[in-house]
């Protein structure tokens, strides 16, 4: 027994799953999926095979050839992080058929009742499998060290439609024989049901499995891009069409920089506000929070990031979460290269500056947990959702930039293309990257302390604080706030969201309340439509004990479920030391809990249990 991933029961001596065929019957009234999964292994196997699962109700495991049951057992108590191990005894089979249903509390699924949707008339469900939640939808070797191709037959209400991180094959009427192996009480081919079929031909790590089902509509925004959202939400569809009009240009720039786009289509899905992330790089169908639509095309940054994953992350994948920086550090670098071309160097530098501030804040957050400040870090017994931070993104970005600065852009671009071409559709670890780096840039280890960068704590001294006129100006204006000086109308005349965000994040954590209120009176920050600005401001307001903003804080926490906003606001409330703040945190969470994605619920719970 040799685990290959601290977050999975997958054993290195077992054959890998190469293909999964799923038959899914979505029951909205019970928030359950009745399912079968046919797993195909790379070779026949005799022995006990380990699979990951979480909160699944398993009804049988069969040999698909004979339909005889296969002996199996489940680990008696679920591991709090990895879930339940399924051990199946095989004697020479290369396929396994599992019949099961998901739990209404499946960590990857958010089920929205009609009142929780925009239309208020139709239900909605969507997945979020990264980091380790795919196992709550289907039993699998849920590790990015393994890649699978998949096909799906999905039975859904006829009033809804489905999208997936896969190619849509067709929508058709259900066939009676399709459900015989699932729960016999299901009306598989009831009149008001349809089947949507999908195939994913490119092998992907399980965390990139994704679907959403709802009353969906779309707009064409480019030759290989549609943007989807709830069809009733015409406002979002209209705005998204404008916000993401530049997507094709980004894909072309990405191809120039990193090589051919290998996934055929690049569609976007704008999710309901409870979506816990800014974006998720599900291949062929990127998921986005509606908060990225700000009306000034700045949402393009998140699209650039998720697009960049098409090369770094989705083509070259970290072998497990201990090497997550390989995914996010490279992607942050690639994102900024795309942004630099399409939005200009100034914007790219501002983003770098926001990232630099974020990285410094993380060093403070992890001052008693230095392991989390390392690029490569030990995650034995650690839940990846609990240690999610800017470190893999921004320290990873800094490391990649450090190499670029050492060798120069031209040489680095060539290296990057070769790196991607060499490892595409593979999963690698930090050492594999470093070996490749040393082999292709001889002597690099004499110029850069590679070990310090990848294994050391904190921010190495040769990291690079960005410089640009506007960046430096904003930092000095933030400094002046401490002396009681507010930026003038002239100074902020050209500022958009990113400038404000950088400014607010560089203010002292706690300020003189009257000054905070005066700043907001003048620039209306608490009411900003840009959530980055609004939340950065509210964070300062909470820490400065400006209690008149508690109403706005409550409203924000009840409107969006993006963890980038929940985390700092709940943290600020919980850590402020004030009873009123703590009370507000508890009360809002009690009331808003049900509207959050299960992953976000867990994250807020752990913040509150730590401080309250
Ligand atoms: N893959 C991540 C989101 C993620 C990370 C989900 C870890 C689950 C576990 C995605 O690419 C991402 O980084 N999103 C960012 C957006 C961004 C522009 C940095 C986010 O959600 O804020
Ligand atoms: Zn990312």
UniProtKB/TrEMBL annotation:
SUPFAM superfamilies: ARM repeat, Leukotriene A4 hydrolase N-terminal domain, Metalloproteases ('zincins'), catalytic domain
Record-linked PANTHER family: LEUKOTRIENE A-4 HYDROLASE
Job of this protein: Aminopeptidase that preferentially cleaves di- and tripeptides. Also has low epoxide hydrolase activity (in vitro). Can hydrolyze the epoxide leukotriene LTA(4) but it forms preferentially 5,6-dihydroxy-7,9,11,14-eicosatetraenoic acid rather than the cytokine leukotriene B(4) as the product compared to the homologous mammalian enzyme (in vitro).
CDD domains for the chain: M1_LTA4H (cd09599)
Name of protein: Leucine aminopeptidase
Family: Belongs to the peptidase M1 family.
Species name: Brassica campestris (Field mustard)
Catalytic residues identified in the record: 306 (proton acceptor), 393 (proton donor)
Spans traversing the lipid bilayer: none
């Amino acid at each position: 027994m040799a685990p290959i991933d601290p977050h999975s029961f997958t054993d290195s001596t077992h054959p890998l799953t190469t293909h999964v065929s799923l038959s899914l019957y979505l029951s909205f009234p019970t928030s359950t999926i009745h399912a079968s999964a046919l797993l195909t292994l790379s070779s026949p196997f005799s022995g006990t095979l380990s699979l990951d699962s979480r909160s699944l109700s398993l009804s049988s495991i069969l040999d698909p050839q004979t339909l005889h049951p296969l002996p199996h057992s489940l680990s008696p108590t679920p591991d709090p992080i990895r879930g339940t191990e399924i051990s199946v005894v095989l004697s020479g089979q290369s396929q396994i058929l599992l019949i099961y249903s998901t739990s209404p509390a499946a960590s990857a699924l958010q089920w929205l009742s009609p009142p929780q949707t925009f239309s208020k008339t139709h239900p909605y469900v969507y997945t979020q499998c990264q980091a380790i939640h795919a196992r709550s939808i289907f039993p699998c070797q849920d590790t990015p060290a393994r890649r699978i191709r998949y096909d799906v037959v999905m039975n859904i209400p006829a009033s809804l439609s489905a999208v997936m991180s896969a190619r849509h094959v067709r929508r058709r009427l259900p066939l009676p024989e399709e459900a015989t192996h699932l729960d016999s009480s299901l009306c598989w081919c009831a009149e008001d049901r349809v089947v949507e079929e999908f195939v994913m031909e490119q092998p992907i790590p399980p965390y990139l499995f994704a679907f959403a089902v709802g009353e969906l509509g779309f707009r064409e925004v480019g030759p290989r891009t549609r943007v989807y959202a709830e069809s009733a939400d015409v406002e979002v569809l209209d705005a998204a069409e404008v916000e993401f009009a530049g997507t094709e240009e980004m894909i072309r720039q990405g191809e120039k920089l990193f090589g051919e786009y290998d996934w055929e289509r690049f569609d976007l899905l704008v999710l309901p506000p409870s979506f816990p992330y800014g974006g998720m790089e599900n291949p062929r169908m990127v998921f986005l929070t509606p908060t990225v639509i700000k009306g000034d095309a700045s949402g393009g940054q998140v699209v650039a990031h998720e697009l960049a994953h098409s090369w770094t992350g989705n083509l070259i994948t970290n072998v497990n979460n201990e090497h997550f920086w390989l995914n996010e550090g490279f992607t942050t670098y690639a994102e900024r290269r795309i942004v630099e071309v399409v939005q200009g160097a100034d914007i790219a530098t501002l983003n770098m500056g926001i990232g630099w501030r974020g990285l410094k804040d993380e060093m403070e957050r992890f001052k008693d947990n230095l392991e989390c400040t390392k690029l490569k870090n030990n995650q034995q017994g650690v839940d990846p959702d609990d240690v999610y931070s800017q470190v893999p993104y921004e320290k990873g970005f800094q490391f990649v930039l450090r190499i670029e600065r050492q060798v120069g852009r031209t040489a680095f671009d060539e290296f990057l293309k070769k790196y991607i071409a060499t490892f595409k559709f593979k999963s690698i670890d930090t050492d594999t990257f470093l070996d490749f780096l040393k082999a292709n840039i001889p002597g690099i280890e004499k110029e850069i302390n590679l070990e310090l960068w990848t294994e050391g704590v904190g921010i190495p001294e040769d990291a690079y604080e960005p410089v640009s006129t506007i960046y430096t100006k904003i930092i000095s204006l933030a400094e002046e706030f401490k002396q009681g000086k507010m930026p003038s109308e002239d100074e902020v005349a050209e500022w958009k969201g990113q400038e404000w965000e950088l400014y607010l994040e560089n203010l002292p954590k706690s300020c003189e309340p009257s000054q905070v209120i005066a700043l907001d009176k003048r620039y209306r920050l608490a009411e900003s439509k840009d959530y980055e600005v609004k939340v950065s401001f509210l964070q300062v307001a909470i820490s400065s004990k400006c209690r008149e903003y508690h109403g706005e804080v409550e409203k924000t926490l009840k409107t969006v479920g993006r963890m980038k906003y929940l985390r700092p606001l709940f943290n600020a409330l919980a850590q402020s030391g004030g009873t009123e703040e703590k009370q507000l945190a508890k009360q809002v969470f009690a009331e808003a809990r049900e509207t959050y994605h299960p992953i976000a619920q867990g994250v807020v719970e752990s913040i509150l249990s730590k401080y309250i």
